[in-house]
Amino acid sequence: MFGLGKREATATEAALTSPSPGEKSFLRSLVAVMACGAGLFSDGYINNVIGSVVTILALEYGDVWKTSNAKHYLGDIAFVGTVVGQLVFGYLSDKWSRMNSLILSTVILLIFTALSAGSYYHGDAIGMFNIMTAWRFFVGIGIGGEYPAGSVGAAESTSQMKPGTRNTWFIIFTNTMIDWGFVFGAFVPYVVAAACQNQHLSTIWRTSLGIGAVFPAVLLILRFFVKEPEDFQKHSMKHAKTPYGLVLRFYGFRLFIVSLVWFIYDFSAYSFGIYSSTILANIFDQATAPLTTVFGWNTVINLFYIPGTMLGAPVSDFLGPRYALAGGVTLQAVVGFIMAGLYNRLAQPSMVGAFAVVYGIFLSLGELGPGNNIGLIAAKTCATGVRGQYYGIAAAIGKIGAFVGTWVFPYIVAAGGNSETLSAQYPFWVSSSLCVLSAVLVLVGLPQIGQDTIAVEDAKFREYLEKNGYDTRQLGLKKGETVDSVESGEGAAVPNKTAE
């Protein structure tokens, strides 16, 4: 199924002994990776800032908000849009263009983020809530496009980086950007609330939402100057019929494992917020505290993610993404079991400092493991011609896992009955157990990923297609579509022979 044997050895040797495609200057390569991957900052920002916005809407509109249906789905509707965007743009990034797909998703994200911030009503708050929800769905579509087009483009662009650093740069401009987006999604409402002295609630939530349009606007300008990744130029199936039957035979099992691990990770992540609420409840009264206090501590909680993703990025180059993910979730499971077992002691107001530290370690290990590496694995375990769709499906299943988790975990909490301790422990017994399962799935079901995995996968897949009668000469962009992403003589992409 995975092309084992003499044929694989031949492909691997060819990929590793051939010169690195288009060895560019470090700065130009870095800009390409950043332009493709950094848009995921918007995912973190927009999905986190909505929590603060909902808090403000509840204060501003009181009983009207409580009786509206929007309180049930305004925060989650972007998940639905994201799944749609991941699937649609996964196809577009393979059959149309990596960079054009990115530009389109950025435009969608920019327009509907601005519309969300500008939502208004004429004496009908319910109408405003409904239109905001509609805009949030389209915001989700824009975010979804960043995954298959952006992350895949970033992975392909890292092929131009120095070996031994490629996974690090990918992580810094994908998952690390998401985590910083979460931090700023909490920090910006804090700053705006402080500037408004906890008054002018409409100004606070509109400004907080509107600032979310600034980053994609800057990124949109940069993306107009970035060319298609060279791997896409040479191995694209844009003008070729995609042999989906062969693709499923070759990558089906691997896609299943990647998708399942991503589902489990996002499914479990919901329970992590339980301890966040416990920490905050021991620090201040959340019902009466000023907005600056609530948003300030929310920023502190989100900062817990940063050490894990940034310090863990080089680990993925040193150990490889497969072992980094498995090691991270295993350690996270150990900490999670400890936190669940010692909940009675840790959840006391006098222990809030120790609780926060252990909780921070728990979150950091989650970023070092699956947070950093699941997207990396999805982006590098498939051939270029179908990489966007492969990644989009895996990412969409992950988001579905997050959505399912939001509905399932309340039942797990409820299983604890009247015991506050059991209600807090059960989700983490489940989550930590799933961490162990993820480690097993990764170690048993996925291959090791090296610095040249993308080149190796393309070589293996081409040989597999040829062995099954597929004409690989039709792969690649046609003459006139290929563009030299570096100056002539510095590794410009070579069109496929049939394009001439």
UniProtKB/TrEMBL annotation:
Subcellular localization, as worded in the UniProt entry: Membrane
Topology within the bilayer: Multi-pass membrane protein
Region called Disordered, residue ranges: 481-500
Keywords recorded for this protein, A-Z: Membrane, Transmembrane, Transmembrane helix, Transport
UniProt-recorded Gene Ontology molecular function terms: carboxylic acid transmembrane transporter activity
A Pfam family hit: Sugar_tr
Database matches in Gene3D superfamilies: MFS general substrate transporter like domains
Entry protein name: Major facilitator superfamily domain-containing protein
